[in-house]
Design goal:
Number of helices: 14
Order of helices and strands: HHEHEHEHEHEHHEHEEHEHEHEEHEHE
CATH class of the largest domain: Alpha Beta
Shape: globular
Number of domains: 2
Radius of gyration: 23 Å
CATH topology of the largest domain: Rossmann fold
Distance between the termini: 46 Å
Largest sheet: 7 strands, parallel
CATH architecture of the largest domain: 3-Layer(aba) Sandwich
Oligomer: single chain
């Protein structure tokens, strides 16, 4: 389906064309007509499927028919990275419109407080905010939401995971009851449905493919000991010079430092990003990665949902994420918008059960690649509980160089 078929404002269509968008994604096809009709919406769609355009295009279309700068749209997101990403997309989609947007999030040096306060009082069309910083403004009593017409909660499951449930309800106590509310979530646990029941009015419910990586992602894994991880990723990277955008996810800031140090020593253009960096530094690191000046970015989970960089070639899970859903969000950083990409996971002997839960969630078994011979044997891949599925489970399991239950090398 093309964007022209939605009946959007010609200036929005010009901006979409300028940005290189051609056909609507599944969530866009489903959500845009519903939102344009004024309905509340509860939508479940994975990372990288075009959710931002799904809710922003119809909102911008509505705002384009008005000629004022009233604060009419509030978008609440879990992280500053996602706030920045969404605002950048808003600026692209509204390039030919007289519509303004402002971000409100913490972690800056305070110089933005005045601009945020002004936007929240004298008005700007759209505010993209994280809950904590927005509440800091609400506590001072000057925020004006009386003309708010659209409220969006993006990555609602992530916000509840972080612990923003009470903050969200408090923010909602300040906004008009007569509004359109749109709620997007990558997963749909009961706590999301409970929140939706409190804040949505007769919502239309939509769901695209839940908790499955995009079709264009080639997934594989190595079963390794911890000391084999860095040599493996070093080999992967050095043998693939055509991969110019590589994102490595690690579980701790300490590991980010160690990985960056090792890859830099091998001559790779590598940078790390974590909560240790100031916001300005993080934005500069992302800018260098986005422009391909930095080939490899090593990050903690802070970026698993909040990064919008096109054409990432390779995702490496240096550590298996604790949450199976987080695996989908990490892998969702590649193969976006019908592109292809590679996702490699490194599974040590302590993470096998976690990886098993990932395979159960996505409904498929991920190929296990033997560790390169020069690095020695890896641990045998085994999980504590048997798996049941109508797909690949029950077929021969792969180990990283040994037959299950023996110390002998496999001939496979």
């Amino acid at each position: 389906m093309t964007f022209e078929e939605f009946g959007l404002n010609e200036k929005i269509l010009d901006a979409i064309s300028y940005m290189g968008y051609e056909k609507a994604s599944e969530i866009q096809e489903l959500a845009i007509p519903v939102i344009m009709e004024g309905n509340d919406l509860l939508a479940c769609a994975q990372t990288g499927t075009g959710k931002t355009a799904a809710f922003m295009l119809p909102i911008l279309n509505h705002l384009s028919a008005e000629d004022n700068h009233d604060l009419s749209t509030l978008i609440i997101v879990p992280t500053r990275e996602l706030a920045i990403q969404i605002n950048q997309q808003i600026q692209g989609f509204s390039y030919f419109l007289n519509i303004n947007s402002v971000t409100v999030y913490g972690g800056r040096d305070g110089s933005d407080w005045e601009a945020e306060s002004k936007a929240l009082t004298t008005g700007t069309n759209i505010i993209v905010a994280t809950p904590g910083k927005l509440i800091s403004h609400l506590n001072l009593g000057y925020v004006k939401f009386d003309k708010l017409k659209h409220l969006v909660l993006d990555e609602a499951d992530r916000m509840l995971d972080i612990g923003f449930y009470d903050d969200i309800l408090r923010i909602l106590s300040y906004v008009p009851a007569d509004r359109q509310t749109l709620m997007f979530s990558a997963t749909m646990p009961q706590k999301i449905r409970d929140l939706a029941a409190k804040i949505l009015k007769n919502p239309v419910e939509l769901s695209t493919a839940i908790s499955k990586p995009a079709e264009g992602v080639l997934q594989a894994a190595y079963v390794v000991y911890e000391n084999q991880k860095i040599p493996i990723i070093s080999g992967l990277i050095s043998n693939k010079p055509d991969l110019d955008s590589i994102l490595v996810f690690s579980s701790t800031k300490k590991k980010v430092f160690d990985i960056v140090k090792s890859l830099k020593k091998a001559g790779n253009a590598t940078e790390g990003i974590s909560s240790d960096l100031e916001q300005k530094e993080r934005e500069e690191v992302l800018m260098r990665f986005r422009s391909r000046r930095t080939r490899i970015l090593v990050a903690t989970d802070v970026l698993s949902r909040g990064i919008d960089i096109k054409d990432i070639n390779l995702i490496i899970n240096f550590d298996v994420p604790s949450s199976a859903e987080d695996y989908v969000h990490r892998v969702g950083r590649t193969a976006r918008a019908d592109k292809t990409g590679i996702a490699i996971s490194l599974i040590n002997e302590h993470d096998m059960d976690k990886f098993d839960r990932i395979e159960k969630l996505i409904g498929d078994e991920i190929l296990k690649i033997p560790v390169p011979e020069e690095l020695g044997e890896g641990p045998v891949y085994k999980v504590r509980a048997p798996r049941k599925s109508n797909r690949n489970y029950g077929k021969k399991r792969y180990s990283s160089g040994r037959k299950p239950g023996t110390g002998q090398a496999s001939s496979n």
